[in-house]
Amino acid sequence: MRERPKGDYSLFTDALLRSSVSSVSAYVRLLLPSVEMLVKISTTALPPRLRGRRDVDAASSGWGTRLARARARLAKAWRLLAEGLGDEAGEEAWRATIDAINAAAIAAWGIEAKSHQALRIIVAELYREGLDIRSEFGVAEALHNNYYDPGHPPETLQAMIANVERLIDRVEAWITTRTEKPRLPLIQPLAPLLPANLIRSITIPILRPVTRYG
Known about the structure:
This protein is mainly α. The protein is 65% helix and 3% strand.
């Protein structure tokens, strides 16, 4: 009976690692059809009113990026209001609104609006998807109009910007609910082949969002 070589287990560990990687690769290949199916659902569910519009483009960034920018612009709006620049604060809140709505559109359909009218249609379609920000959007439009035709006192602007903050909060909550997916179970026959640390690493939620992150 041949004795096992002493001291050098590098070949053994290398072979084990390669075997594990191959097993993981096979596992991922089994999942690809499901991934493709989910992606197709996400990209072909574009509402009829948004199809073929020149003012609707494929997303240029992820929804996380847009949502973060909406938060940053909202903070700037509050700061401008505190500095007595109410008209500019309202316009910055309007820009935050655009980013938040585009974040929702990216999460839902992978698109973004390039015009005011496209934003209005997206808001209406988001309502059909369970996100009702119609009233808040109307207030944000009034903030935008106030930039060109000033007249609202600071107290009113404060309440209006608070509406924009509520819009952003609702968008974020809706996106979080929409993109959370259950963890994929590890295929039972494969588990004994993998080291424990590798099992932990591949049971992360591979399919959590079907849309792009920022």
